[in-house]
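Contributing new records

If you add data, match the layout below exactly. Sequence lines come first and carry their own label; structure lines follow with theirs. Keep one chain per record. Anything else will be rejected by the validation script.
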Amino acid sequence: MADTDVGYRLFVGIDIAADTFTAAWRASGGEGFPPYTGEQTPTGRAGLQQRLHATGLAPDATLVVLEATGPYWVALALGLHEAGYRVAVVNPRQAHHFAKAQLRRANGVASFLRLFRNLDTAGEVGASQELAAVSRA
């Protein structure tokens, strides 16, 4: 399934840790929003969805990219996917090597956000097909 022809209007990058996550997002027009750090709990994940909803942009016009960091990304990715957001889970090495090819460093959520917008423009990131399979398991 090719998702590169979708006109995303909101780009979200999420840095995953064992107990928390930090999300940063930017509208396609360049408007940035303050980062949100939430706990890896249902309440923390719901807080992120509330903030994304407050942007006024539809979930299907939103691309959320997060790194596959251990098992910590699964609940957050599935919750966003089930809420209608387009979710892409990338291999951390992919993000690192893409950053290296762009002569940039990929550390911190703001850098990650810039990088994955470039990845999406290059057609390297699309909604993860694996999420549907994981949600059925």
